[in-house]
Amino acid sequence: MVTDFTRRKLLRTALGAMTVVPAAGLLSACSMGKTTQPPKLIGCSRTPAGAYSVVVASQDGQPIYQFALPGRGHGIAIQPNGTLAAAFSRRPGQYLQVFDYQSGQEWPIRAAAPERHYYGHGVFSADGNYLYATEGVKTSSEGVIGVYDIKAGMAKVAEFTGFGIGPHEVVLADEHTLAIGVGGVHTQGRKPLNLDSMQPALVYLDVQTGGVLERVELEDKRLSIRHLSVTDTGEIACGQQYRGEPEQAAPLVALHRRGQPLRHLQADDEQWLRFNHYVASIASVDGYLLATSPRGNCYGIWHEASMELVEIRPLVDASGVGVIDGEWLVGSGSGKVLTITPPKQVRAYQSPVMWDNHWNVLPS
Q1: What are 169-223's pLDDT values in tens digits?
Q2: Which Pfam families has this protein been placed in (predicted)?
Q3: Residue 92: which of 23, 144, 49 has the closest Cα?
Q4: Rounded CA gap, 111 and 113, in Å?
Q5: Per-residue model confidence as pLDDT tens digits over 128-165
């Protein structure tokens, strides 16, 4: 199994000869890249010196502009039918940053309340007027969905609670429904405190009232549901983090259709162990699903209908995945960017950006 230590060693080796675009001053004006290509990708990034930023880049990962963040970022939300984006700090996060991804203009940073933290993800409403953020109560890890009014300057207008502890990613299952990956883990900082009593679940909430519409759980309570994606057939794909014994294998990707149980994608134990108990980003194209594992330094591709694994390929610090014109774009912390035509035709590029776990494709 590839350990986090090995991952960091591989990443340092891959970055040794690279030139990384420096971050701008703290929340200063955007620094411009040299490419003349149109913006297609947006994600959080890191530098070897320990700085963090948001980067807007071309389709092959070349930076167009970037601005600094006050700490490590994680997920990005993109406003439908608008030009805003929101960057969320890595859990337990202390800020979220809204900005215009076309102009680079930043809104005032939104700090977490003293008794709260952000969990790293959020999503805009279908009309783009509200931002939903996963949050938690520091003392209990009680899950909260903070509802922010964009037209009111990011005023917090509601909170949805009562759906579980340790939520992570939230997506729009449809324009009326939020889907939340509830990890079920109570933490102090990043230290887990309740591994023997975890209650992970995939939960659906009404976007207007916050009422629970459906809750579905996996049989193995050590499978913490973390990351979500809506597939091209309308199912919710769930990426898990296994919190059990290090030598034990567990299925790390599942699919769910409303009113049915969660269904695991298939792989052998040895193949699941390649992912080092963690799946980050997920996206589907034309009946195939791709999931990355930065901890496992690899990505996997499955055929959705048969649930069978097509292949696993190595990629140092495999991170974000998105879809453009029927192809996957996969990033990595080493700066490598892959364009993959399903099921497994690959073209590779080198970017000067150390991409973090997630990125988004910008609308055309």
Answers
A1: 999 999 999 999 999 989 888 888 888 889 999 999 999 999 999 999 999 999 9
A2: DUF1513
A3: 144
A4: 6
A5: 999 999 999 999 999 999 999 999 999 999 999 999 99
Instruction: Name, in order, each residue with C-beta under 8 angstroms of 233's C-beta and a sequence gap of 6 or more.
Output: 284, 287, 304
Q: 145, 160, 143: which is closest to 201 by C-alpha?
A: 143
**Contact at 8 Å (CB) between 38 and 359?**
no
The Cα diameter of the chain in Å comes to: 53
| Vertex 39: Cα angle to 87 and 24 (nearest 5) | 55
Q: Which helix (H) or strand (E) holds 253?
A: strand 253-256
What one-letter code names the amino acid at 262?
L
User: Residue 309 has what DSSP assignment?
Assistant: E
Extract long-range pairs of 220-225: CB within 8 Å, 24+ residues apart: 220/244, 220/250, 221/184, 222/195, 222/198, 222/250, 223/250, 223/251, 223/252, 224/166, 224/183, 224/184, 224/185, 224/198, 224/200, 225/168, 225/181, 225/182, 225/183, 225/184, 225/200, 225/201
CA within 13 Å, CB half, 55: 32
pLDDT tens string 52-71: 999 999 999 999 999 999 99
What proportions of the chain, in percent to the nearest 5, are helix, strand and coil?
5, 50, 45
* Residue 33 CB contacts under 8 Å (≥ 6 apart), including other chains: 21, 57, 62, 63, 64, 65, 66
Can you tell me the distance from the alpha carbon of 304 to that of 84, in angstroms, rounded to the nearest whole number? 32
How is residue 294 annotated by DSSP?
A: T
Phi, psi (rounded to 5 degrees) for 313: -125, 145
DSSP assignment, residue 90?
A: P
- Length of the chain equals 364
DSSP secondary structure of 187-208: EETTEES-TTS---EEEEEETT
